[in-house]
Design goal:
globular; mainly beta; 1 helix; 14 strands
């Protein structure tokens, strides 16, 4: 069985808040990515080691509806209902826009979303800084493909349910992976960095 370690590209959730998700992938011999915010786009370059390519990253992250919920929470004290668990989906076609429309998940062959409860076991405490960073404290591992392939995974998204549900945030993988029958995939410990800062911070 092959376990593929998937690396999300750095994603800027909000040009105003400067929220981002980035990832480190030792399997690609990259210590970390540094996204550089240039206007409304983000560019990444590796530190320390080489990668196959330096990728241009389009601004994205929280879908528009969740961005609105976040702003209303901060400014209007409007309750923002967050799920007990994140259910992380894999996409063979990523969302076409910040609405989350157009995302396509594998169907059948043992596919299922990764469940990660929102707690201090699964997610490390945020480290205050410029920007502030939180990440996954445990490896997040998918089920194993059984009975057929899942296709080539290009993106991921976090939902509030094991199927259907509401998409909250999403991102593209820096390198797509094909999950064949008998394979699975995982996000290594610390691979998902969730960053919050202001436009002057270095992402």
């Amino acid at each position: 069985m092959t376990t593929h370690t998937l690396t999300p590209r750095p994603r800027v959730v909000s040009p105003i808040l400067g929220v981002a998700v980035e990832a480190k992938d030792k399997h690609l011999h990259v210590e970390r990515f540094t996204p550089v915010l240039l206007g409304s786009r983000v560019f990444t370059q590796p530190h320390g080691q080489s990668v196959d390519a330096i990728l241009e990253i389009a601004a994205a992250g929280l879908i528009d509806a969740q961005e609105a919920n976040l702003v209303d929470l901060i400014l209007r004290a409007t309750a923002w209902t967050l799920p007990v668990d994140w259910h992380i989906a894999a996409f063979t076609t990523g969302p076409s826009a910040d609405t989350g429309a157009g995302a396509v998940e594998p169907v059948g062959n043992g596919y299922g979303r990764i469940q990660a409860t929102r707690n201090g076991t699964n997610w490390a405490a945020a480290v205050a800084g410029d920007p502030t960073i939180g990440d996954n404290a445990v490896a997040l591992t998918s089920p194993t493909a059984s009975g057929g392939n899942w296709g080539t995974l290009v993106a991921f998204g976090a939902y509030d349910a094991a199927s259907a549900g509401n998409l909250f945030w999403f991102g593209d993988y820096a390198v797509s992976k094909t999950v064949n029958d008998g394979d699975n995939y995982e996000f290594a410990i610390g691979a998902l960095d969730f960053k919050v800062g202001d436009p002057g911070d270095t992402f």
